[in-house]
Design goal:
This protein is an alpha/beta fold and 474 residues long. Helix content is 29%, strand content 23%. InterPro entries: AB_hydrolase_fold, IV_sec_VirJ, VirJ.
Amino acid sequence: MSAIRLVPACAGLLAASLAAGAETLEYGRFGTVSVTRPAGEPRAVAVLASDAAGPGALDAALTEALRARGTLVLGVDAGRLWRQARPEDDGADACTFIGWDFEAFAQYAEKTLGLADYRQPLLVGSGLGAQLVWAAAAQSTINTFRGVLTLGFDPAWTSQWPLCDGDQGRVAQAAAGSPGEHLVPPPQLRIRWTTLRGGADGVTDAALQAFVAQVPRAHAVDVPDAALAGVPTPWLAPFGDAWEALATPAPTTALADLPLIELPAQATQRGSADWLAVILSGDGGWADIDRELGERFQAAGIPVVGFNMLKYLWRARSPEEAGRDLERVLAHYRSAWDRRRVLLVGYSLGADILPFAVNRMSPAGRDGVALAALLAPSRRVEFEFHPWDWIGASDDSHNPRALLVAPELLQLAVPALCVYGVEDEDDTACVELGSNARPTVLRLPGGHHFDENYRALAERVLDAAQRAATGATP
């Protein structure tokens, strides 16, 4: 389907401002977004989507409850957003995709508001906002949002226009006797979701429970005296309990300061018992290609550690710091998972960072690295994430902080594979290595995403790793 994505025309459309004493952001089709800061550095970030009529008394009460719990609250008028979300054409394949837009908005907002670290947002919504934040999470890659908390979610709600399938599957289907679509949980949906049902609202408990039962990590809570149009007070105690359950971080570990995703091996297969894979993601975080590769390695019996480069490079890093942190990751998981051989994979931004990090690891830290596979590396890289990179508003060729990638590739002290798509050859460091370079260069069909043929890409990388482990050319 051809999707509409609610991105701004340029980074300048997002600007912090003060209006009538309240801090706001102006962001594309989201319009004016209210900003409510807690005292001190936020412990969490919430995108709060209102009902169709716009923010009201309930939103104000929820905002204050979240602020008191140390949360930065970004208040969105869901009615305005949904009116702007209509597909631009009426073709058979036209659909609306809002998951990426909530993610991109949160990232722009956090960067603009100066948060020291990127905090995975929680999506909160009431009424129409409940339907939209649920759809956004269902359309998105797993681990995009920390969780979803809805008030008055209605499983019988009908969208006026089609919703695009998401990374986890179909999120809506045609409604019988209606031109619109009903929400449906994708079969592979993996989100932490709590919904509060007001006893005075029209949603039946049976219908809601039947819907929630299809989502493994979800549950519904009845609030008998509450109604979306009523006074906010009955909602606040159960809302606070649900929020704390979603927002409380996991227990601290030795690597708690690093944004890692663990994919333990599903089952050991022949030849995989000794392997560990570490994947450095692109600038979209743990997204389509990173997740697909990780899950394919995992299915092959290789446990995977995902390293979210969007979060890691939220603040400026140095190559030396990246090397130390990657060495920590390898040391920890080789011991914890009892693995000797390591496959390092970087995609896009992760591929840019990987050779710098490997070259600055100690010889002992690099020991056991059988292959470094760089997928779609750029010619230059800066060790800090900038949201405007997504819309082509930066030019690293004139950036004094951008470092050349090819020289680091040529200095790699481990076997390496440099992979690029033929449509991406003007922008990749792989073509700068020369025919006699030690890194093996692999040219594949497609562009930066390799025509989304991730299964074949995973097989190529695994084959190269097995060859490299025997001393052969990857």
